[in-house]
Amino acid sequence: MSEPLIQATNVGKTYGQDVILERVNVDVHQGEFITLVGASGCGKSTFLKMILGTEQSSTGSLLLNGKPMPNEPGPDRGIVFQQYSVFPHMTVLDNVVAARGFQKASLTGLLFGRQKRQARDDAIAILEQVGLGHALKRYPHELSGGMKQRLAIAQAVICKPKILLLDEPFGALDPGIRADMHALILDLWKTHKLTIFMVTHDLKEGFYLGTRLWVFDKLRHDPQAPNAYGASITYDLPVSQEGRDTLDEITRQLGASRPTIPYKETA
Ligand SMILES: Nc1ncnc2c1ncn2[C@@H]1O[C@H](COP(=O)(O)OP(=O)(O)OP(=O)(O)O)[C@@H](O)[C@H]1O
Predict the structure, then answer these.
(1) 36 CA to centre of ligand 1 in angstroms
(2) ABC transporter domain spans which residues (predicted)?
């Protein structure tokens, strides 16, 4: 098998005295679609931020293509948050062109001449793909929640990331709209050959979208010091088509069984 795209070895994260994550050991290969589930506050977003480069691991090693994860975001890693992060004073089209501008000319975000024409053409193509081709001239306040999230996804994808990080991107959307967004994200994943990490609170969504599902949980608890231990990945489940078909059964087993990755005293 090829070299892992991301390799985490005994990764831990602390904020002051609080241990958030500990002993995270995973390899991720290009093209995987990882979904992350776990209790609120257990460190899922923190793990995404470490891949984005806005947070650094406190212990262990986190590698991207065999080299230490850069300490800042880069064009190879895009992110979409639950709260719509678009520029309110720009049209839909200009929002996506600007995202490319900040990538290519980060200080001013301004593009000129051929670069600008290319960015416009690419932006129109990606907006067509996310279903906003009819709304190029609208402003964000004229869009529904689902449309704003499509716009945020288009902003991330126009930068041609290898890795797309999705932090509960559909959490604020109605169930019917979420189904459309699922189809969109699977389409983008395939056509742009992305590696996706997606945090969700919806186990069903995690099984439906992912090729692999991670459960974050604490394996050690100290009732006297609740923040003394951090969460690890306690289940690392490959999701096959059969897995999707027998979702109810897997959900039942997850609730009833013990973690498949027991805690090991490794250095
Ligand atoms: N910059 C920070 N400084 C101090 N503590 C932080 C910081 N960022 C996050 N935390 C803490 O780290 C813990 C994990 O936060 P994180 O957002 O990663 O959890 P999460 O699993 O994504 O939660 P949720 O599902 O609610 O979004 C929380 O207790 C949070 O308060």
Answers:
(1) 14
(2) 6-243
CA–CA separation, 73 and 8 (whole Å) = 18
Mutating to test ligand 1, I would choose from 13, 46, 215 the residue with most ligand atoms within 8 A of its C-beta, which is: 46
Residue nearest to atom 30 of ligand 1 (CA): 41
Atom 2 (ligand 1): residue with closest C-alpha?
Answer: 15
Cα dihedral 263, 58, 199, 123 sign = negative
> What is each CA distance from 57 to 80, 92, 258, in whole angstroms?
21, 36, 27
How confident is the model over 82-92, as pLDDT tens digits? 776 788 999 99
Where residue 168 falls (left for φ over 0; alpha for ψ -120 to 50; beta otherwise) is left
Integer Cα distance of 38 and 186 in angstroms: 22
Q: What is the pLDDT of residues 23-50, one digit of tens each?
A: 999 999 999 999 999 999 999 999 999 9
Q: Ligand 1 centroid to 41 CA: how many Å?
A: 5
Of 6, 1, 2, which Cα lies nearest the Cα of 214?
6
